[in-house]
């Protein structure tokens, strides 16, 4: 990550962020975003695998809800509520 910082800063020079320390901050945010997504992806995947086995998802399937409906109404809201506290603890 440290070796990418000067590269990112040189790429951001001459853009709208080229005022004061915004180049440094923007380059750090971009670099951390590139390397930090893997942790979030693992947490979300674990939550989805756990939630899809819950009884309320099975009940929605038995009721005849579509896959899209189950994802939008059951899984995504519960994943969000499970991931946010995990990110705060991390």
Cα separation of the termini: 20 Å
Radius of gyration: 20 Å
Characterize the largest beta sheet: strand count, sense, and whether it forms a barrel.
none
**Low-pLDDT segments, ≥5 res:** none
Task: Output the number of helix runs.
Answer: 4
Order of helices and strands: HHHH
The total of beta strands comes to 0
Give me the secondary-structure category: mainly alpha
The share of residues in helices is over 70%
- The dominant shape is elongated
Estimate the strand proportion.
Answer: under 5%
Averaged pLDDT, please? 83
What's the short version?
With 90 residues, the chain is an all-alpha fold. It is built from four helices and no strands.
List the keywords.
mainly alpha, 90 residues, 0% strand
Description:
The structure is a single chain. By secondary structure, this protein is mainly α. It is built from 4 helices and no strands.
Break the fold down into its secondary structure elements and pairings.
Layout (H helix, E strand, L loop, with lengths): L3 H9 L9 H30 L3 H9 L3 H23 L1
